[in-house]
Amino acid sequence: MNPRKPVLVRITNNLGLGGVQRRLRDLLPRLAEHFAVHVITYKDRGVFFEELRDHGVATHFLPRRFPAVARLAAFLGRLEPTIVHTHSYGGNVLGLPAARLVGAPVRVGHVHLAHLHWYAASPWRRRLQARKEALVHRLASHAVCCVSEEARQHFLAGTGLAPNRVVVLENGIRRPPEHVTPMSRAALGVPPGAVVLGMAGRITRTKGFAQGISWMAQTPPQFHLVVAGPGDTTALERHAHALGLHGRVHFLGPLTDMPAFYAALDLLLFPSPPGVEGMPGIVLEALGMGCAVLAQESGPLREMAPVAPRLHFFRPELPAAAQMEAAMASPAADLTPFFARFSLEAMVERTLGLYETLLRQGRP
């Protein structure tokens, strides 16, 4: 008779097409080899909700309604979790108190962003969020994972938690298939012979997409920009029109086959400003495909750079087109060091190692 697997519960706001969710989509089926894995969402289900079920992960939607912590604790009590692992500010302040109420032996919070982790509109409200989360962790968590050292330092400064309580747990990505068919020029909307630049991600004001379009305005006519991701593109379309980029910027909407998108690019642009990203999955995925990347310099990307020779940082004092040409001309990289650090397998190993350490400590 097989022994019962310990129960791992992840708590996140949704399983839609975001970076956090894509990492969970890849990671959790692998953890299901070791745990009975459950995911609880509290804002929405999302496109990966059913997909994860098909890969052995139990998914549950528990809308956040008063009394939210008590309702979640009652649900967790039925699952009898060994580990509860929560995500982002909302998941941490909701899920960790509930996990403590049911006596989960290991309780872990996760921080995926640096300066935007506390997201309230005003500075004093953000400080209030930081103080609230600090109290939650002091009372209810055993460890906090941050996806980069920059995110860790920002979180420590905001909460005052002991440094040994907060660790870096870097993201990892699936290795691409051996053979990837690039998206066709027709599917991208670009003419034959065009130089294809790309941007990808959830389209929001903070992500720097407008800056990337401004870089495009400095390029010759054969350069075309394709933009993949969910969100309202109206303002970006107006921006491209104002810069005279008629027919050279193409919005594709959300895509599910991202390897085919990256394979079609000559260069990925990543203009997200410093402080916005935790450890950008878009850049990891593109580099893992061997794609050259020209990015706005930031702390997480500097952390990534030692194993990413095709990652280049944009210099505003230099001509944009020349920087793009130089990045595209960079030689193909040996991806062995990159995947030794940023593969899904490495992320699984790091996650299991963290859990084993916390379980050995025998927390009450």
Can you put this structure into words, describing what you see?
- The protein folds into two domains: 7-172 and 343-360, Glycogen Phosphorylase B (Rossmann fold, 3-Layer(aba) Sandwich), CATH 3.40.50.2000; 185-341, Glycogen Phosphorylase B (Rossmann fold).
- 41% of the residues lie in helices and 17% in strands.
- The protein is built from 15 helices and 13 strands.
- The strands form two sheets. It has a seven-stranded parallel beta sheet with strand order 3-2-1-4-5-6-7, sandwiched between helices. The protein has a six-stranded parallel beta sheet with strand order 10-9-8-11-12-13, sandwiched between helices.
- The longest helix is centred in the middle third of the chain and has 18 residues, at 123-140.
- It is globular.
- The mean pLDDT is 95.
Poorly predicted regions = none
The description of the largest β-sheet is: 7 strands, parallel
Q: Describe the strand arrangement of the main beta sheet, using strand numbers.
A: 3-2-1-4-5-6-7
| Series of secondary-structure elements, N-terminal to C-terminal | EHEHEHEHEHEHEHEHEHEHEHEHEHHH
Helical amount: 40-55%
CATH topology of the largest domain: Rossmann fold
Quick one: how many beta strands?
Answer: 13
The shape, in one word, is globular
| Mean pLDDT over the residues | 95
| End-to-end separation | 29 Å
Domain unit count? 2
